[in-house]
Design brief:
Elements (H helix, E strand, L loop, with lengths): L3 H9 L4 H5 L3 H8 L4 E9 L2 E11 L6 E10 L13 E6 L15
Antiparallel strand pairs: 1-2, 2-3, 3-4
Length: 108
């Protein structure tokens, strides 16, 4: 589990939003550690297949607070050894009564 204080000090206060969004996932992992969960989803849009990448770090033991990173790339341009960039990121807080619908469980 990633502590919010560590996330703030090692990433959010140290780098600008633009610097974070230009990072590769492997660079981010060096700074804050490996995600608790990651997955990809393929989707068709605009006449082509897109690969969507999602990375999630738990910020609390109860799972109600997470740091999420996602990005997408055209599948035709993607190579297995490619490292997706950060794209977008957010800290998400959910209440205990929040209903989560997901295709994959958020626990490892």
């Amino acid at each position: 589990m990633l502590k919010i204080e560590v996330l703030q000090k090692s990433l959010l206060q140290k780098y600008t939003e633009q610097q974070i969004m230009n990072m590769k996932i492997k660079q981010l992992e060096v700074i804050i550690g490996e995600p608790d969960k990651s997955w990809t989803v393929n989707s068709i849009g605009g006449g082509q297949v897109w690969m969507f990448f999602y990375y999630l770090w738990r910020l609390s033991a109860d799972g109600y607070h997470v740091f999420v990173v996602d990005n997408h790339h055209p599948a035709r341009d993607w190579q297995p050894d490619d490292d997706p960039g950060v794209g977008k990121y957010a800290i998400v807080s959910m209440g205990p009564d929040c209903v989560i619908s997901a295709t994959e469980p958020l626990s490892k």
